[in-house]
Design goal:
The complex is a heterodimer of chains A (464) and B (237). Chain A is built from 24 helices and ten strands. With 464 residues, chain A is of the alpha/beta class. In chain A, α17 crosses α19. The chains are: A alpha/beta (464), B alpha/beta (237). At the A-B interface, α1, α2, α15, α18 and α19 of A face α1, α2, α3, α4 and α8 of B.
Chain lengths: 464, 237
């Protein structure tokens, strides 16, 4: 099996040159930026709101111990069962335990990237359980046996024609590519699944410490059905999802919607505070909440990059990232793609195996500029590069940079570069853009600039 | 005032006209140029690649030579960000940290120096062309220089500025361009397409390294796009 970096380069090579893909993603995300800007404009002072959001998340993350305990105690007081999972495997085992205990057969899920992170569907299917994704995008990629392309828009890479073909093939749907009709196909399939499901599994957008509530925000109403219809509800979340106070949602719900899709507010915003209480006549009989560490506490211990736990998974950094736009979500080979994925994946899955994600960036900083909670993403990429090379330097590069420093610091040698370069360019000319070209990595797709007849230093010397 | 001019290697070797134009502009405004001929690189290639020890080998002579300068102008937004933003990080916790911070406060990107520090926007230039402006990402996002180059272009006679629909990276990114050439050139192609869409004849920028990449991609693709540095526009008649 090829390593993550080989897989990444191979996939990038294909997707970056796929003009159909480029057109689909560029068009979609250019539209997003226009709508996002309109919605940002509706805030009286967006910069101030962004600063406030960053400060609230800072407070939550830097007092995570206190807020997590409060969150758990409030939830448990209303009868929810809270499970702490150190690793993804443990989280899967806890969820499997509940599923076995309930003698469940079918599980309906609303959107949760954390479950992708721990490969929950595979774990459940391996034991013979039926798992159905109820978010339309997730439903589509599940049918296609793909992972989500984007953390917010899982099927954005597919055209409606492709979705029509998929539905007709897999669901014997006989549908056109009309979006309304396609949605109705999914709805007909999913309604039955909700009713038959023994367990509803959700993620969480925010965990409110003050009240012990889980906030879920969605556009399709599928998460409400997932949570409300089955007898048992399981919620899986990373332990960084904490917000201190209920009133913080007044800021974070619009912030998440604005950054995520450009909507002023997502269509359905629900808070879950526990299982069915005495006297209530609907809602799940049991609520299990699984809190996942999954090496997040290692990031918490890292003062330099702790702010990456501020992330509210809005996907804004993916949307503006020119790397993401050109290589697409699947190329990353990770659950979290784009800039935030390139920052945290080396921490969550291992620096040496995943450092290439931090290297494959022009460091343009569009991610840092857009992040609604002010994560210093571009600089974290630089820090990951520094830490990766400090731990395990590539000898040739290290030697190369030492040699570079040797030359650049010696004006007498540096002066020779221009005349040598002029000769070199003459010799290079017949090799240019061929496989023998030593700078083929550049010249395959780009012309070379020429060394000037007179350098600036030559100009300066002559002038004196 | 005495202005220290930092000319990075690629401006020296490939785009000397940019440096020459900057000298002409500043001297015309009555300033004296101090040009440290022995400084050729800010150390960014090694820094961005994660080799901070090797970056310091290059950066330290720069820091030592420039730390007492009254004002330092860097002929590239990217190298400017290295001196202004990243030197304090590179030397954090070392004996050179105070010097790096002191230098940081005196570093200026060229266009921002003219507009913000000298309060000059009209340099009497004439450039009868339709142009679009490409923001070098480091100038734009590390140094926060967005309005200054536009203020300068607004005063150039007979120049028409048409903005591209997005402020997006050209894909250069230093060693990134050769480590991940497929991603870098795809980004360059997107950039060129956006520039072509404006109908502009020239792409103007405050960073020659971006222009090198954009021109390289445009030429390879046979696109009739020309690139020119802001300083050269400002000395055009």
């Amino acid at each position: 099996m090829s390593s993550p970096v080989q897989q990444f380069k191979q996939a990038a090579n294909v997707v970056a040159h796929d003009l159909q893909h480029r057109a689909t993603i560029q068009t979609a995300l250019e539209k997003y930026t226009v709508i996002r800007d309109q919605t940002r404009g509706a805030f009286r002072d967006y910069a101030a709101v962004r600063q406030a959001a960053a400060e609230i998340k800072w407070e939550a993350v830097n007092h995570l111990d206190k807020y997590l305990e409060l969150f758990v105690s409030k939830l448990e007081a209303r009868g929810a069962k809270v499970h702490w999972a150190g690793t993804g495997e443990q989280a899967c085992e806890i969820i499997l335990g509940v599923v076995r205990e309930k003698k469940a057969r079918s599980i309906i899920k609303s959107k949760t990237m954390t479950s992708e992170e721990i490969h929950l569907n595979e774990a459940l299917e391996l034991e013979g359980y039926e798992v159905v994704e109820s978010d339309l995008g997730e439903f589509i990629v599940q049918l296609k046996k793909e992972t989500p392309y984007h953390i917010v828009f899982p099927a954005m890479h597919l055209t409606r024609g492709e979705i029509k073909d998929l539905f007709n093939r897999k669901l014997a749907a006989n549908t056109s590519d009309n979006p309304g009709e396609l949605t109705m196909v999914a709805r007909r399939v999913l309604r039955k699944k909700y009713i038959n499901a023994d367990i509803g599994l959700t993620g969480a957008n925010f965990a409110i410490a003050e009240t012990g509530m889980i906030s879920i925000t969605e556009n399709e109403g599928n998460a409400r059905l997932t949570a409300a219809l089955p007898k048992t509800m399981i919620t899986l979340l990373g332990l960084e999802k904490i917000l201190p106070r209920l009133e913080d949602l007044a800021l974070f719900l619009p912030m998440l919607a604005t950054s995520g899709t450009g909507q002023p507010l997502t269509c359905y915003n629900t808070m879950y505070g526990g299982p069915r209480q005495p006297g209530e006549f609907d809602g799940p009989e049991e609520l299990h909440v699984v809190l996942l560490d999954g090496r997040r506490t290692e990031l918490l211990a890292n003062a330099e990059q702790r702010d990456s736990l501020h992330c509210i998974r809005c996907g804004a950094c993916l949307n503006v990232c020119p790397i993401f736009r050109n290589i697409g979500g699947h190329t990353y080979g990770t659950t979290y793609s784009g800039p935030i994925g390139s920052v945290i994946t080396p921490h969550l899955r291992g620096l040496q195996g995943w450092k290439h994600l931090s290297v494959s960036s022009s460091l343009c900083g569009a991610c840092t500029e857009t992040c609604p909670v002010k994560i210093d993403l571009a600089h974290h990429l630089l820090q990951n590069r520094r830490d990766a090379t400090a731990q395990k330097p590539a000898r040739l590069w290290k030697l190369g940079f030492k040699f570079f420093a040797f030359i650049i610091n010696r004006p007498a040698i540096y002066k020779l570069l221009a005349p040598l370069g002029r000769v070199g360019q003459k010799l290079h000319s017949p090799l240019k853009s061929t496989r023998l070209d030593p700078v083929y990595a550049w010249t395959k797709t780009r012309e070379m600039p020429q060394i000037a007849p007179q350098t600036f230093r030559e100009f300066w010397t002559n002038r004196k | 005032m005495i202005i220290t001019l930092f000319i990075p290697c690629f401006v020296d070797l490939l785009y000397p006209c940019v440096g020459i134009s900057i000298v002409q502009i500043l001297e015309k405004l009555g300033h004296k140029i101090d040009f440290p001929e022995e400084l050729n690189c800010c150390g960014q290639p090694a820094f961005n690649s994660g080799y901070w020890d090797e970056a310091r080998l290059v950066a330290l002579p720069v820091l030592r030579r420039l730390k007492n300068s009254e004002v330092v102008i860097i002929a590239s937004g990217s190298c400017g960000a290295m001196l202004k933003v990243f030197y304090p990080q590179l030397f954090a916790g070392t004996e050179y940290e105070p010097a790096a911070k002191k230098l940081s406060a005196r570093c200026w990107e060229f266009s921002d120096f003219l507009v913000t520090k000298l309060n000059m926007t009209d340099l009497g230039a004439r450039f009868p062309h339709k142009v679009t402006f490409h923001d070098g990402c480091h100038a734009l996002r590390e140094l926060g220089v967005r309005e200054s180059p536009r203020a300068l272009l607004a005063k150039v006679r007979d120049l028409e500025l048409v903005e591209m629909k997005e402020e997006v990276c050209c894909g250069f990114g230093g060693t990134f361009a050769v480590k991940f050439p497929m991603i870098s050139s795809a980004m360059g192609e997107v950039k060129c397409a956006q520039a072509v869409e404006t109908g502009a004849e020239f792409i103007v920028s405050n960073d020659s390294s971006c222009l090198m990449h954009i021109q390289g991609v445009a030429d390879k693709q046979g696109k009739k796009l020309k690139t020119i540095h802001l300083a050269e526009v400002l000395t055009s008649q």
